[in-house]
Amino acid sequence: MKKIGITTTVPAEVLMAAGYTPVDLNNLFITSDDYSKYIDIAERDGFPKSLCAWIKGIYGACIENDIDEIIGVTEGDCSNTKSLLEVLKLRGIKIHQFSFPHSHKKEDIETEIRRFMDCFGVKLEQVEDMRKKLGSIRDLAEKIDHLTYSCGKATGFENHLYQVSLSDFDGDMSLFESTLEKAVDDISSRQPVHKKLRLGYIGVPPMTGDIYEFVENFNAGFVYNEVQREFAFPRAKYADDIFTQYYDYTYPYDMDFRLVDIKKQISERKIDALIHYTQAFCHRAVEDMVLKQKLDIPILNVEGDKLNSLDSRTKLRIEAFLDMLLDLKEIRI
Predict the structure, then answer these.
(1) Stated pTM of the model
(2) What Cα–Cα distance (Å) separates residue 147 from each residue in 158, 179, 210?
(3) Which cofactor does it need (predicted)?
(4) What is the C-alpha to C-alpha distance for residues 223 and 117, in angstroms, rounded to an integer?
(5) φ, ψ for residue 117, nearest 5 deg
């Protein structure tokens, strides 16, 4: 199947029904052994230093891995994607656009998905058939999520990794399904580990993947990954069709819509505090103000930039935050 790059989660059902293999350029970038080379490629070609590292990484990954066709989400994700697509077009890459309408009206979402299907020459019946096949894989990710927050057997990083990979099914749907089946079996056989502090991670997936292991040094663990969980479409099986599925997808829409599910998960998972990750030079950093106003729970904002590991200052801030929470919990007990 022909590979096609994506800048974030899009209706993979449409692409796979059309015979494409979606490749999430974010994952291609951040999992590279030498991820910084992709940023260097972008800056060498003229991208400014004062631009989000993800955009530069996506560009570099696209160029370095000979991706010749790409879908960019120009509404409902990064505000810089439109400019990125213009530059990639200059490099001879075939460009497609997809939007999650700001109106968040179901009829507008249906119109956009139908346009997307027409673009790739597939019918609704083909897309729904593929949606059913992908549903069984998403069910496995939901089991890993349950093994994290309910059973204490999966780690926060495993929860993050397997769910975030559902944006493109790791480039091979069948192989990834086998990987998830094995992971569910292995994790289920473990003894549970219950940390004193139950944390939620909200915001875009991190550049600094070591944040999951770092918090475990302080009797804490992540039992909720907001956006990664949305990439896994946990409510897809309740959706009547693909239009409803992408209407219920919270990530691209306004904060009030996202907050409904965040509040629900805080309650169901008995979360003590949240760490809100934002990326330097990203407009989503402003959302931290809204979260702290509308959520009655301790929140620490952590900002990442080019590094794929936590710096000393950020580690110190997280440690102080967790120490305070542990002290407060002891006092309450």
Answers:
(1) 0.93
(2) 10, 16, 21
(3) [4Fe-4S] cluster
(4) 36
(5) -65, -40
Local structure of 160: helix, strand or coil? helix
Residue 333 CB coordination number (10 Å) = 6
**pLDDT tens per residue across span 300-320:** 999 988 888 899 999 999 999
Q: Are 196 and 328 in contact (CB under 8 A)?
A: no
Q: What digits encode the pLDDT tens for the residues 139-189? A: 999 999 999 999 999 999 999 999 999 999 999 999 999 999 999 999 999
Tokens 């302080």 — which residue? 218
Give the CATH number of domain 2-120.
Answer: 3.40.50.11890
Region 46-54 average pLDDT: 90
CATH class belonging to 138-332 = alpha beta
Instruction: Name the percent of the chain lying above pLDDT 70.
Output: 98
- Tokens of residue 64, six digits: 């370095």
Q: For residue 230, which amino acid is it?
A: E
Which strands form 299-304's sheet, in the order they lie side by side? 220-225, 197-203, 273-279, 299-304
Strands (DSSP E) found in 76-147: 94-99
